[in-house]
Structures are given as C-alpha cells and as structure tokens.
Records
---
Amino acid sequence: MITIPERIILANLPTKIEKLERISAQLQGPSIYIKRDDQTGTELSGNKIRKLEYCIREAIDQGCDTLITCGGIQSNHCRATAAAAAKLGLKAIVVLRGHDPDTYEGNLLLDHLLGAEVRWISSEDYRDHRMDIMHTIADEVSAKGQQAYVIPEGASSGIGAFGYFSALQEIVQQEQELGISFDAVIVAVGSGGTHGGLLLAQQLLPTSHRIIGINVCDDEDYFIKAITTVIEESAHYLDQSVTIPTEAIEIIDGYVGKGYAQSQPQELQCIKDLASLEGVILDPVYTGKAFYGLVEEIRKGTFQDLQNILFIHTGGLYGLFPHSASFEF
Ligand SMILES: *Cc1c(COP(=O)(O)O)cnc(C)c1O
C-alpha cells in the first residue's frame, strides 16, 4: 500500500459515473462513460477542488492563514480557491491575468462574492513572472503578521496532483462496484496536474488504464515537460522514486483550435449536441474542446480497439455564461 499525503475534506466524493448511451450509439465506437467531477460541489465545482484538498491541507499544516493563487479572468481554479478559503475562514488573494472589467460575470463575479481579494496583472507579467509576483504578495502578507501559502496555476503542484492520484483510486473502486473496466481515462489538459496525478496513480497502483489528455492550450511537448515536472515534485512526498517513461504520457494535440478560451463553431456545436442528447453541459474552455476532440478521434477510428472510455467532466460551468454570445440558435 502506498501512503500519500493527507487531505482536508472539501469535495463531494465519490463523483458519479454515468453512461452516455445515446452519443455512444450514435458514434458506434467505444461506450463512453462520464465521471461527474463537475459535481464535486456547487461553489467548489470542478476538478480543482480535488487538488486543493491536498494543497490546503499542506497550507494549514504549515500554519498559513492566507491562500494566494493565480489564473485567467474566468479561472475555475481561482473561484474554487476563493470558495474553499471562505468555507475554512482563510483569506484568498487571486492574481488574475488582464484588466479589471466594468462588469463581473461567471467565476469573476463569484471570486468577488466569496470575498477574495482580486489583483490584476498584464498577460506578459502573468506569463513570465506570476510565481515571483505571488511570492512578493506573500512577503507583503507576512509583513502584516499573517502567513501565506502560494498555490501555483491550476493547483498543478506536486502536492495538488495527489487529488487525481486518489481520483484514479476512486475510479478503480467504482469499476468494481459497477462491474465495468475502463480501457482509457480521458481528460482535458490545461495546466497538467490532473493528467499528472492520474498518471502517477497509473504507474504506482496495480491498474493499467491508458491515461489520455487532450490539451486545450500550448502543445504536446509543453505538457510532456509540465507533467513530468509535476510528477517529479509529487515523488518527493512518497518514499519511493518514480520515473515516468515519456511514452506513457499520452497527449492528443490538435484540439486547441483558435487558442485558449477561444471557441470555434464546431466546438460550440458539440456542446449543444451533448447537452440536448444527454442533458450534460460542458464548458467552452476545457471540457467542450476535449470532448469535441474525443468525438473526432472516435470518428477517425483512433479508439476502435477500446471498449469502454471514461471521460472526466472536470467542470467549468460558470465559465460558460460569459460565452453566451458565441452560441447561435
Ligand atoms: C483547470 C481545468 C481543467 C484542466 O486541468 P489541469 O489540471 O489544469 O490540466 C479542465 N477542466 C476544467 C473545467 C478546468 O477548470
């Protein structure tokens, strides 16, 4: 048995696994199942809370009372951090990329409602200096006699990845209960911690699922490096060494489309199709692109040897509404 770090319990777990009957029949490929990590909570909804359970436990163990993190203007991760902080009586400072807009919607509205302190930095500073900027804010916090814990983008740190290590353990348990085995687990990749955690578990537990990521920004090379780094960091928390062969990191690149948080008509159509066919709402930034990628790959025959595929719905619902004008009806 592997001992992993302790977590603080915040998410509604285990999340349900449902079969997507009609879309599977329509595509005539493998049976597609969906794991509802969009239902980890309401305020806490999505994949980030699984990772935050481990990060925040570490923060509390270190005696911290302030969480600092960063993300895009509609960051699901910043909103989940703000919600977790409010729930635990901690302070959250979220550093967002861009400019303070006139009206607040989606996750940004929630960041404010949840009492997070919101700070804005330029795209260039975000790209090149976000960690330094957060550490400078942490120094500011400690000068006031408080203690801050810095959570990197997406909580995709070594400790955060344990959220998806335990998610794969949860999936293995559910396979036994449901009497199904999944050949592959498919997930959207944005900062890599979700994929990294799943892969760490796949390597260390007696399971053999393929873990397949569909990136929604950057490219395959970028994520092979990012995921390797996350896993190396996670290994420091374990009493065993971990080496992930590069070929185990399966990224299907080609579905970034117009770029991060920018949609193409076919991706939006895929969101509409799944919603009306199955009653499941995806988001345009992550799950909509990844699910569109999955459907296209099934159409191309990429997964013809597989029987059962599990797609993890990583959340993002609040980020849908600011995109309402992109949809045509
Ligand atoms: C952050 C996010 C992802 C990507 O997870 P990473 O661990 O950052 O790769 C996928 N879906 C949603 C809805 C997200 O908010």
Note: The beta strands are 17-19, 31-36, 66-71, 91-97, 117-121, 148-150, 184-189, 210-215, 250-252, 308-313.
---
Amino acid sequence: MAAKLSLSFVFSLILCFSSSSSSHDGIDTYIVHVQGSHKPSLFTSHSHWHNSLLRSLPSSPHPPTLLYSYSRALHAFSARLTPSQTSTLLLHPSVISLTPDQAREIHTTHTPAFLGFSDNNSPLWTNSNYGEDVIIAVLDTGIWPEHPSFSDSGLDPVPSTWRGACETAPDFPPSSCNRKLIGARAFYKGYLTHRNGSTRSEESRSPRDTAGHGTHTASTAAGSVVFNASLYQYARGVARGMASKARIAAYKICWTGGCYDSDILAAMDQAVTDGVHVISLSVGAKGFAPQYHKDSIAIGAFGAMRHGIVVSCSAGNFGPGPQTATNIAPWILTVGASTVDREFTANAIVGDGRVFTGTSLYAGEPLRDSQIPLVYSGECGSRLCYPGKLNSSLVEGKIVLCDRGGNARVEKGSAVKIAGGAGMILANTAESGEELTADSHLLPATMVGAKAGDQIREYIKHSISPTATITFLGTLISPTPPSPRVAAFSSRGPNHITPVILKPDVIAPGVNILAGWTGMIGPTDLDIDPRRVEFNIISGTSMSCPHVSGLAALLRKAHPEWSPAVIKSALVTTAYDRENSGEPIEDLATGGSSNSFVHGGGHVDPNKALDPGLVYDVEARDYVAFLCAVGYEFPGILVFLQDPSLYDACERSKLRTGGDFNYPSFSVVFGSGVDVVRYRRVVRNVGSDVDVVYEVGVEAPGNVEIDVSPRKLVFGKESRELEYEVTFKSGVIGSVPGLEFGSITWTDGEHVVKSPVAVQWSQGSVQSF
Ligand SMILES: *[C@@H]1O[C@H](CO)[C@@H](O)[C@H](O)[C@H]1NC(C)=O
Ligand SMILES: *[C@@H]1O[C@H](CO)[C@@H](O)[C@H](O)[C@H]1NC(C)=O
Ligand SMILES: *[C@@H]1O[C@H](CO)[C@@H](O)[C@H](O)[C@H]1NC(C)=O
C-alpha cells in the first residue's frame, strides 16, 4: 500500500503564498526546508551552507538576511526574502519547500490531589523521585525567575547531561537561573521582522515573562513545592508542579504579537541540542490545524521525537465545534481540558428569591447584601458589555447582566465598572453552555451558565423593578458538581488531516488552575488592573498541557527505556472516562456525555500509567511509513526525512493502510463502499510478569461489529511482543449515522489496557454486513 519512494524523484516544489503578513516590497520571512544530506562536506556546519545558499542568490537591492539556521530538530533555515529570491531558491535541488513565517497563539493547586497524588507516597511520585533530573523545556512567554515555584532548595546539582545556557540581560541576571530553572533563552528574530525591528515597550528581549502565561505553565509542569499559595483568599494550599523535582528550561517564543514559527523552530532545535527530555508547548495554530508538512510545530516535534523527546501540546481552545483540535500529528501528545473538583462559588440571588450558582474569584469589598437594581446589558447599549458602549445613566449603581462572547470576560466587568455599575452577572449563551470559568473580576461579579442566564434574562424582562445581589462563598472542594467534565472551549476531533488517528489523546485539568504568575501584570491581564499577585487562576488547554508534560517527565524518570510513543500509550490506555459520580464524563458544551473525539482515551490517571501492562510502541520510521500509507508524497514528506536512515521506511513498511499504524486508540472511517476495515496492532508486555495471558473485551459501538483475532494473547520470555487484528464491520443500512463509540480492552486480571474506538461514516456507506 505504501507508495514506493526513492530519492531520485524529481522534486515538484511547493510554495504556499498564504497569509503573508507584514510585507514591504513583497519581502517576507520564510522557513526554507532543505535536504540536510545534500550539505557539501566542504561546509563545516549547516549554517555555513545555508548562508552560502543565500549568498549564491543574484545580487539585489535587498540582500537576503538569515534569521536562524536549524540542524537538529529539522534541516531548514529562516530568512527575509524577496519574491524573486524565493523563486530562485525553489529551483535549487536541495530546497524542499518554502513556507511563509506565521504567528501561532498561546492556548490560554489542588490538581495533584485530584490526579491521585494524594500524599507523598503516591506510586508515580515515589517511583520517579518527583521527576528528579528530567529536563522539561517550556516553550512559552518566558519565565519570572524570582517566583517561589522556581526555588531550587533541596535539589541536586544541574544534571551533567545539560548542554543549555542561561541567557542573561539587564533584567535577567545570571542569578535568575539555579538548580530548578537550569536554562533560559529568548527567541525573537522572527517576531522582530514582523514588528519592523522593534518590540513593544512593555516586552523584554530577555527570557523574562512579562505576560504570565509561561510562568504559569512552567510552574504547573515542574514547580517546586510552595506552601500557603493562593490567589487572594482563593485556592489556598500547597502549590506544586506535577514533577516537582524536574528541571525547567524556559524558551521564550511568544510575544504580544504572537508566537512565530521561525522562533518556535529555533527553540525546538535548540532544546534538542541542549538535551531536554520533554517539550511542553501550549501554543498552536489559529483555527484549523495545517497539514503536517506545512505545520512547523509538527515538523519540529517530529525531529524532537526522533531524539527521544516527548512533545506534549495543547489541543487548543476552539471548541466545541468538530475538527477544531490543533497539534494533531500522531507523534504529538495532544491534550484537552477538563474541570477538577474545586469550585469558586459565587451565587447570584435575584429579587424573587431564586439562587443561581455561579463562579468568581472576585477579592474586593463584597456587595451589601440587600437587593440592588438589575438591568440587562442588551437594554443599555451593549449586550456583550464592550468598554465605552454602556449607557452610564442606565447602569449607574446597578448590577448588569452581560452576555458572554466577543471580548474578554474580565473586560466586560471593567466596562460595567467604568460606566458606574455596582456589579455584574456574566451569563453564558447557548454557545458556551454550562461551562463556568472563574475570573478575578475588578468589581463584584459572578458567572452563570446558559440555563441560569436565560432564566435571569426572563426575570428582568417580566419584572417591574428587577433586583439582584451576589454572595461570594469562596473555595469549595466538593463532589458536586461531579468532575472531571470537559470544558466547552476544549478543541475536539475528529482529526481532519488523518482521520484514522484519534485526537485529542487525553484530557487533563485545564479549568481554574492555580499556578505561578508574573510580577508585571495583574491577574486579569488588563492594563487598567493595578493589582499584582504571586499566583493566578486561569483556564485553557494551555493549562492542561503542562500537567501532562509533568506526568511525562515522571514516567520518563520511572521508565528511562520508554519511548515517547510508549509514554503516550501508557497515558491513553490507563485514562478513565467516568466522572467521580460514576457517570460518563460530561461535555460541558452540551450537558450530555462526552466522547472520544472530545476526551480521547479519557482523563489521565498518573499512578495507573506507571504500570500499564501492555504498550503500543512506534519509532520514527513507523511515522514515516504512516505518512506514506495515508498518501503523503514527495516533496512534502521530505521535510520529515532529515535522517537518511529513514529513506527506505516506506518501501519496507508493513502497513496496509494508515489504520494499521500502531496507535493506542482506534479511529475508524467507513464510507464510499468501505464497510469492512481491518486494523493491525502490536502490543508489548511491560508488566512485571513475563509469562502472562491477556484476554480481550469488546464494547462495540452501535451499528458496528468488532472482531478481534486472536482473542487471547499469551506472553512469555520469547514473546514479549504480540500482534492482533481487529475487523470492524459497519452494519448501517440506509442513512448514515453520526459518530459512534466503543472500546477494546485487554486485561490479565490485574492490568486493564483500554483503547477507545471512535467510528465515523463518510457519505455513501450504506451496505450491510
Ligand atoms: C511595519 O511597517 C509597515 C510599512 O511601514 C507598516 O505597514 C506595518 O504596519 C508596520 N508593522 C508594525 C507591526 O509596526
Ligand atoms: C498564609 O498567607 C496569608 C497571607 O497570604 C497569611 O495571612 C497566613 O497567616 C498564612 N498562613 C500560614 C499558615 O502561614
Ligand atoms: C442613555 O440613556 C438615557 C436614559 O434612557 C437616554 O436619555 C440617553 O439618550 C441615552 N444615551 C445614549 C448615548 O444612548
């Protein structure tokens, strides 16, 4: 099935002229992918060669400028080029493709206990010594080095394998780095070219985090233990990263104008050189994920994976629509966001006595308890409460109900405050459903779900003098509402690039997460917010990704021989899909059950992942074979073949289709006459017993018959790896159903190795079996 590939192919070259941003005289920044193996030996380094390629271009009033030369995670360089220079480069036999530099965006603690790290004896913590000496690269907005989460007290000297650096600057002295924060670098050459050479005044061209996001994600992944941490009175307790003894290397790639591919690739390339073990990247494409060979994060992650590095990424906050997940390449660990069992409850009580439960992190003077006049923003000039759009004479001294959407939630409260309002009830609309996000509002405010919002709007409409008040109940850890539940914003599958790869892989805490913050801006991130806090509570798949990055570090330490694919497999097959109430995990966007296109294998279960029983492994050449099997051709696939040992991966592949790829989950696509598909899998026994028998259990989706062969796997000393085949038959007659879900579970009585099964039908699949 795999197309026969050889390097004698004539390269038909690709150039994507999409979204060119700040071009003057047509000059733009490009990533130029080259065949590393073509480097003539007279050049001592790839950057010499890249420079010479640029110098060989015809002379021009605009000589090309090289920004970065990449040689570890990928073979490429980035440069400022005129249109005629790009055309000339494309004719060069060593140039594979040119892609315009593009901006990505950031996907914006009690969680250890929720994850099952209930005490210091938790198996994964003790078996990994809290991830000691594992190095996590956090590619983000930089880091606030003075934060107590980056204290190195009790840590051993920096691991001898570390080859990175602490880049200093006036606002980032050498003392910024220590045994916890072992490296810090800033990448802005790409960003600068899009800003005409100047950063914004509030930004620092150093690794210092002036935005907060990078400090939050780094402390979530690997922050040291901090007692009595809180945001004002909220979430007080012990804050700690998932791998509290892992080391952090901060790579600042995101700036106020976004995170540019050229800078992201430079950081990934450097992280490989520096010797990191895990890359945590809470950044992704805006909108739909690009094709893998045009997606710089996918390309850089491939190179990192080839060096044994786990790349853990956020799925994005573009839910709840289908196919919204980004960072969906099979070699990436893709993480969605869910809730935990902690609430910051603030009730809205309306004049007729009804109480609507909401959430808030407001920390100032409370409202006086008596009822206050209540108005709807839609009657006061701005349904979404845009700043400057509310009529002061209508909102003065009143509580304003604002609709969610359009602008930042805290900005709505600020708009109400500036217009003279006394408080705000922020109400979801159908789009955001029942998902609640706690914010540290600048005025007394709470946020309620869509159902409560509708009832309060009705109440206002039908009352002669509507009133309300808000009462703040603080932090409640409680089994109600049940958790985890998937956030409405969490991006979802199906995977629109390779539908046979189920995405996201797992979900992890991403709603109302307490972690470290920058000293540069307030908790609301608004210029008008003068407050400064040590910890902040924010939400996003940006927050769930570093949880899993930290878990990957722990697993890596506990099982140094595990590949990135095995670590992913362990997390996916041990994840759970039930809330703490016993019910299926709810999707907060719909109020109904979530599914595998929303939560992948389910919520991570770290202590179970330590001992998964069986694992699904793959290596770099298997991914190449997969790309061929799903139809990737030259030249696109060349960007992944940096290593000549991968050149024959497609020819020698045993994959019949992309579905045979040894992924720990199943995504089945029926359609256009295809109503039977067969997927092959190979499992390796990594349990403590060499001789063990696993039996299969099948939960078949509706309209689908599943047959597993063999149904019993007998492992022994000589047979640690065994193969099985699954036949999926569509039983659909007539109209095509939506999506269906099930699972395939292997168990030896002790381990439960569960793979989710997701099935979709494309039009035209109407035969019965
Ligand atoms: C850069 O300069 C160009 C041309 O003067 C201008 O159109 C563009 O807005 C500038 N970009 C930024 C980010 O200042
Ligand atoms: C925790 O910090 C707060 C101030 O943020 C302080 O009032 C309180 O005494 C501290 N508690 C402990 C046990 O240190
Ligand atoms: C604001 O509301 C008052 C009272 O209804 C009205 O007289 C005034 O015209 C409104 N102002 C604007 C700018 O709409």
Note: The longest strand covers residues 467-477.
---
Amino acid sequence: MACRVFLVSFLLLLAASPAISTNSEGAVLRALKARLSDPSNVLQSWDASLVNPCTWFHVTCDAHNRVIRLDLGNSNVSGPLAPELGHLQDLQYLELYGNNFEGRIPEELGNLKSLISMDLYGNRLEGGIPKSFAKLKSLRFLRLNNNKLSGSIPRELVTLSNLKIFDVSNNDLCGTIPIDGPFATFPLQSFDNNSRLNGPELQGLVPYDFGC
Ligand SMILES: *[C@@H]1O[C@H](CO)[C@@H](O)[C@H](O)[C@H]1NC(C)=O
Ligand SMILES: *[C@@H]1O[C@H](CO)[C@@H](O)[C@H](O)[C@H]1NC(C)=O
C-alpha cells in the first residue's frame, strides 16, 4: 500500500514537472537514434542523461526548452524514420534530407501540428505519401523528391493553404496531379520523373488514378 502511494505521488510529480516533460522529447529523439546506423557519429552528443535534448547537436529548442528544429541533412545516417517523431508537438523544421533513411514515411508525422518545413528529399523512402499530412496546416515547404515513393498524391493535400513549395520529383508516383488549392501554383518540374504520374487533373472531372 505504502508502495502504491509512493508510486502515485511519483507519477504525479512526473506529470507536473516541465523538465521531465521536455525530457520526453529527448526520449523521442533517442528512439530515432536507437534505430539508426550512424557511421559518422553525428548523434554522439545525444546523451540520455541530460535533463533535456536542447544542448544536443542538430537539435534546436525554443525558450521553453521545446524542440523546434531537427537538422540532420547530409549526415550519412541510415535506417527507418521513428513514428515517435510525431510526438514533437512544437517541431517547426524537420530536415532529414540527403541520408539513407529507408522504409515508409510514418503517418504519425501528420501529428506535427507546428511544422513549417519537412525536407525528406534524397533518401530511400518508399511506400505512399501519408494522407495524414493534410493535418499539417502550418506547412510551407514539403520536399519529398529523390526517393522511391509510390502510390498517388493524396487529394487531401489540396487543403494545405500555406504550402508554397512542394517537390515530389524523381519518385515512382502514379495517378494524376491535383490542381486545386496550392497545387494551382506548383511548377510541373515538382512532379518530374515519376513514370506513372499522368499530368494535371482535368477541371471538373473526377480524378482517375491510372494504374494506381
Ligand atoms: C558515411 O558512411 C560510410 C559507411 O556507411 C563511411 O564509409 C563513410 O566514410 C561515411 N562518410 C562520411 C563523410 O563520414
Ligand atoms: C528518376 O527517379 C529515380 C528514382 O528516384 C532515379 O533513380 C532516377 O535516377 C531518376 N532519373 C532521372 C533521369 O533523373
């Protein structure tokens, strides 16, 4: 009984302490690191014993010690993208380009409600573009080019009214290119070299996913 009371007060303390709640963001990043191969030791400073991840290299926090940037472009890391990344509620910049990230893009990344920029280009990602990205209402830059992504471009993305740059060139996408919302402004080069992607949708026609 005393033991249970102790446990409950410990859990209350955990819930109340901001230091520990930011350390849960450290745990998220450690989950990413745990699955990666890091031959150039770029993640060496990711020390779990620190009170939060804000002093780690490639991680930037705001004044409240919340992670707002993850900068691992051209870092020679390989492995899967951890779904846990979706818990970084204040993340604005997810910069993971030019590595050997592989496997599917976790749909949990659609929970990054503060995200402004997601750069996953130049990896070996496969599978589809998650429909959950339609929840990224602050997103301005989405670059997924030079991967091995397949499937169609989710129509749901036409609701991303802040999206300024969208690049899915050099993948294996199929279907048609949406024309509504921000898609009215993206140049055709953003869609280059997807052998089964068939031009912009025709106005007024229900999109038909050729070969998808
Ligand atoms: C990248 O990793 C490979 C091993 O996978 C290693 O041989 C190479 O030296 C690394 N490149 C850099 C720039 O660290
Ligand atoms: C087209 O995209 C594929 C997949 O990313 C890539 O391997 C290939 O080199 C690209 N081809 C050209 C001409 O850029």
Note: Residues 18-34 form the longest helix (17 residues).
---
Amino acid sequence: MNSILQQDLNDFENILEKAKQQGIEFLNNLDTISTSNKATTDPNQMLNEFGLGSLETLKEFNERLAPLMVSSPGPRYLGFVTGGSTPASIAGDWLASIYDQNTQAIKAQGGASALIEFETINLLLQLLALPDTFLGGFVTGATMSNFTCLGVARQWFGKQSGKDFAKEGISETIHILTATPHSSSVKCLSMLGIGSQNYTVVKTIEGNREAIDVIDLEEKIKQLNGKPFILISSAGTVNTADFDDFTAIGKLREKYNFWWHIDAAFGGFAAVSDKFKHLVEGWEGADSITIDCHKWLNVPYESAFYLIKKEHVSLQIETFQNSNAPYLGNPLENFNYLNVLPENSRRLRALPAWFSLKAYGKEGYKDIIENSTALALHFGNALIEAEGFELMAPIRLNNVCFTLKGNHNQENVSEFLARLNDKGKVFMTPTVYQNRKGIRASFVNWRTTEHDIKIIIEEMKETLLDLDI
Ligand SMILES: *Cc1c(COP(=O)(O)O)cnc(C)c1O
C-alpha cells in the first residue's frame, strides 16, 4: 500500500472527526454564512507528485476552496427550489458513502441493498398517499426522473403501432402535448431524440394561470385524429406553483389513448397536507410521476425518484435493459435497478430519505410543508406592506413570484436582484412571467422562520433605497 494511504488508514478516525467538526461548524453558522460570494479558484493548479494526506488536503481545501461554499442549505437561500438537509438525512447520506454499496439487486450474493430502496419508495408512497400500483426508484434529480419516465413513454408510443423504438430507433413523429413544461422536460425531449421543439403547446386557463386548459387540451387531442400521444402535465409549475386539473385529465383517459406523465418535482408534497392535498386529487391515475427529494423532502443533493405504474415494467425494461439478452423470469422477482433506469452503478441514494422519513414521520413532513406555505404567504403580505413591489401571481403554495412595482421599473429588476443577492443575506432567482421580468422566492427549507422574512424584507427595502427606486 502507498505509504500516505497507509498513514491515512491509521489516522482514519481523526480525519473523519476533523471533517465532522468542520461540518458542524458550517451548519451551526448557516445563519451568518453568505448566500453568495465572489471567490474564485486557481485555474493552474498542478496535481502533486506526492500526496498531501487527508489532513493537509483538508487544510488546503479550507484555505482555497471552502470560501466558495455559500449558505445554500441555509434558511434564506430561496433561489431555484433549494431544500436544506434535515439532521437525519445528513446522517443517512454520510452512511451511504461509508457503506458504499452498489445498489442494484434485491436478491444477490453481491448485496441486496435495493431492498432498502424498495422500502423507502414504499414509505414515500405512504407519505404522498399514493397506491402501491407504482414501482419507483431513485435517480439524481427531477431531470433524470423526467428522463426515465419519458423514456418509457417513448417506448409505449412506439408499441401503439407495433414498433420497438428502443431497439429500432424512432421511426415516426411522437406527439407530445403540454401546457407549461419545466425546462428539464424539454431538455429530456432533446436527450430522448424526440426533439426539444417537437411538442404542441396547449393553452393555459385564462387569467393568471399556468395550469392546462382542459377544453383546449381536448381540442388538440381531436386534431390528432385518434393517434396516441404523451401528455406532460404539471403538479407545481416553478413560477406560480400552479397545478393541472388531474381529475379532468383522468376523465379524458377514458376517451383517449395517451401516456400521462406528471412532473410533481416539488408540488407533489401538497399531498402531505390536508390543506393542499386537493391540488393533486386524481394524480394516482397517471402512468408516471416525477418527484424530487432534494427539494421539499429536505435531503442533500442529489436525490429524486420516479414512479411508474407496475403494469409498464416490461416497457421499462425494454427501454433500459443493460444487455440484449432477453429478460429471464418474472421482472419483479429478479428485480435489478440496472435494467429499469439510466444508471448501472448506483450509490445507496435512498438512505438519506429513509433516515429522514423514519426520523420525522408524516407529522414532521406535514409541519415542514405547512411552515413553508405559511411563510410564502407571510412573505407575500410583507412585500405588499413594504411598498415598491407587486405580486405577479397569487401565492398558491410555496413559491412567490413578484417584481418591482410598475412597468417603468422593469428595467431595474435585474440590477435590483443582482444587488440584493450580492449582499449575501438572501438569494433569489430571476424569472420571466407573462413577458415581464420578475423574481422568484421559493420556500422549501425546514429551517426558515418568520424572523428570516423580517431580515429579507429589510434587505430588500435597503436595496430599493440604494438604487433610488
Ligand atoms: C426542479 C424541477 C425540475 C428539475 O429538477 P432537478 O432536480 O434540478 O433535476 C423539474 N421539474 C420541476 C417542476 C422542478 O421544480
């Protein structure tokens, strides 16, 4: 063994202890660590001939690279839809690295850690009040979940005319209907060879809505003259957290032949609260659903899962099977994740979610969801009181889409946000909604409190003054 490796092996406990201390310090100071920074790295770093050993490497990391770390698991990081990490999920995440399993099979001499993944999916189905007619698995994020689901949808589409697209390639136009797809779904159409511009945009409901207009949807379906299609629907659009009407879509399924996919990356968690579960009513009728865990479940990146109806498992295997040999036996008995999703080797990605679900239960998650949604409303009210701002859409769940008051201020929105983010107390994302520049604040972090909103509003008022708006 290399001598430096040997030395590290002897000193393992001390190394992990130092890393732990450092982690605790970061987490204990999330409140004061900046949400933005301007640190850079040295692009000419050379690889050492001889290693430094872990402790020296940690020192170098702290000197040069740790300053790049922003308070993204902190309470005022409202950009994108960034969840934090619960204590239990961090413990689970550490252990996933330490156990370092290759999570593929549920029955194998080389390890059966996929049973833990099955168990976790089952807990998630209970949390979201979904039936066990779905089979699920973990992937890195909602983008890969959409990819997995739409990959199977693509195979389904080919089968409607007796073709095997997975084997033969795509030989006919695949019809996709969608109203407000997330950019990642459009990216998936590109990655799947369907084409990022090859989808038909269905109207949204009149007024300040991003949800699909079911009447226009039926019109567009009729124009297809009985051809099959794939519907990409939304449970929580990023700008305004709007939801398609799943009960109405479910009724259309009785009349028309389509694959129904729901992108519920964060919005699916509406199911956890009695106050919001009506938003996802009827979603169990879908063929496939995408849900992120690194958002509202508050587990560390990278974590999401897909749910695909068990009845489609053969299509799923045709799409992702790792060899050309025919699949032997009952796929659910000899189940192996490597045949049903993009990755072959996989970490035990379910473990952080398993820890967190066990540690906090239904009630813990209901509290997180209802705290986030209450804070979104609180922030919306505080914005109006602060003057100088206007909401761009009603606050339906946890995302607040707003802008500077008045059209004359449209030209100041980018500068305002850049300055606000620069100050490092809060981070939000720019957006465009109904052709106007806006800002999005997303509440999903379990740590955020009313006190944070107070700090954020003060920072925003100060930034208005700085810019003389
Ligand atoms: C965040 C998000 C995605 C993409 O998720 P990643 O985890 O970043 O891959 C897809 N759809 C919706 C609705 C989202 O909010």
Note: The longest strand covers residues 436-442.
